Amino acid sequence: MRVNHPRYPAAPGRPAAPSSARPAARGRRAPAEHRTRLHGSRTLRRLGRVDRWAFDRVAAARLPGLEYVLPRLSRFADHGVLWFTTAGALGTVGGARLRRAALRGSIAIAVASPAVNVLGKQAFRRRRPVVDLVPPIRIRWKLPTSHAFPSGHSASAAAFATGVAMEAPRAVAVPVAATAAAVAFSRVYTGAHYPGDVLAGIGVGALAALGTRAFWPAPPPAARVTPAGAEVVGRVGTVADDGLGVVAVVNTGSGEASGVLPGRSELAVETLRRELPAAEIVRCGPDDDVDKVFDEAAGRARVLAVVGGDGTVNAAARSALDHDVPLLVVPGGTFDHFARALGMESAAEAVAAYRAGRLGRVDVAYVTPATGRPGGREEHVFLNTAGFGAYTELLDRRERLERRIGKWPALAVAAVRTLRHSEPVELVVDGRERRVWLAFVGNCVYGSRGATPNWRARLDDGWLDVRMVATGRRVPRVRAVAAIMAGHLHIVPGYRAWKAAALEVSSRDGGVRLARDGELTSLPAAVRFGKRTGALAVFCPDAAMA
């Protein structure tokens, strides 16, 4: 009679097979269902033996130095402390991309942890390993009393590492993944889990992180652009490593300073001075005529560089188009949507793109009075988005509040007040009368479905991305607010979305107020949106080249 050894519990989810489960006597064929159950039971027993053999090999291993490191690392990962500390660090010192990585990793843990600890462990109820082969020096923790399968520590580690890898650059994702692998291995090395428990936890954690894409799509590292032709590259000439021929205009008011630390624009200027000493740097203050400053700089530049937020980049793009010079976008503002779309998160990455001489062509969207012409003096360009309806009210309120309480708190307060009090406006859109509560026009098609989506797969597709909430007499405010916060505006009644090469909008109550790349503009009662495909030459990283 075979007896189960106390060191080797049954495989997860399966008790030891009773004697009645023996195969049928020779000459008598067992039912198909019974044969399938026997085959599955044998497979699980084989897997269990391999799992216990692997645990014994790890328990018997002697890895000098790791006897002290791995137990402490495993303990630090209790209750996700290691990962939430890492998320806090990424969100504090990193840019928008690292903040997204930290948030996605934290959300993945919030999904994986209950899936393993509440559902998985209760479903399988596997006993913990017997630790008689594990040296006592590795066991400096209280033995867990919960079930072993799957491993909760491994699930949290894999969830966070996968979430970070979906957003962060390789220089950040690789160390986080290595730390997660060390935590997973430490659970076997310290005797807390069998290898099978750890592998199952890793699988659950990775799936939880990948599942976040269902409600929050992961953006590409950089939107694709069309490589510039030989005529543009020839006009620029050989790129000088010291920045000769570059004229950089700096908006000194971009990038909030904390009062102790310099703002993002000042940090970007220091990088330019250090890396491109021959470049000319022009400072543009709040009392200067921005359009005039950029026009004069573009007139004498071989490459026009801009340090500032999206509104400043918008002004630079207009001057670069007028003088037919390439644009170097250096992140230095609060949001930097266009720079991030190009795949550049820092001034150092912008300098690297310039030195590599990688030039691409991107679309420029514009809005002009219905009686105007593209390229005329009345044309207003935008590189990211234009909005009307409640969005202009939001920006009005934010500008009134931000000098008193700061940009981010002002944005939050303004959003709540706008969503509570805004009313639809009567407009005629492409010949159809609509009561528009919220409208968004994007330069190229955006990938997410929120009210103000922030990533694109391409910057040269030739399309306007139009999204609009046209309501009846009553705005569904609670549902609309929830949909906006969740990034799923399409569930709001009256939502419409379409692609267009052009769009005509007119108001019977007077002019049209528009927010272009975050800057408010007042236009006549009838306006037309359009595209200038591939009109602007920009420097971009290799990841953006199609």
What's the topology here?
Blueprint: H1 32-60, H2 66-76, H3 81-93, H4 96-124, H5 152-165, H6 170-189, H7 195-211, E1 226-227, H8 230-236, E2 246-251, H9 264-275, E3 280-284, H10 290-299, E4 303-308, H11 310-323, E5 327-331, H12 337-341, H13 347-356, E6 359-369, E7 380-382, E8 385-389, H14 390-405, H15 407-421, E9 425-429, E10 432-443, E11 464-470, H16 477-486, E12 495-500, E13 503-507, E14 512-516, E15 519-523, E16 526-539
Can you characterise this structure?
The protein has 546 residues and is α+β, with helices and mostly antiparallel strands. It has three domains: 66-214, no CATH class; 240-356, Rossmann fold, CATH 3.40.50.10330; 385-535, Tumour Suppressor Smad4 (Sandwich), CATH 2.60.200.40. 42% of the residues lie in helices and 19% in strands. The chain has 16 helices and 16 strands. A hairpin with a 2-residue loop joins strand 14 and strand 15 (519-523). The longest helix is centred in the N-terminal third of the chain and has 29 residues, at 32-60. It is elongated. Residues 1-8 and 13-28 have low confidence and may be disordered. Keywords: Cell membrane, Hydrolase, Membrane, Transmembrane, Transmembrane helix. It is found in: Cell membrane. GO terms for molecular function: hydrolase activity; kinase activity.
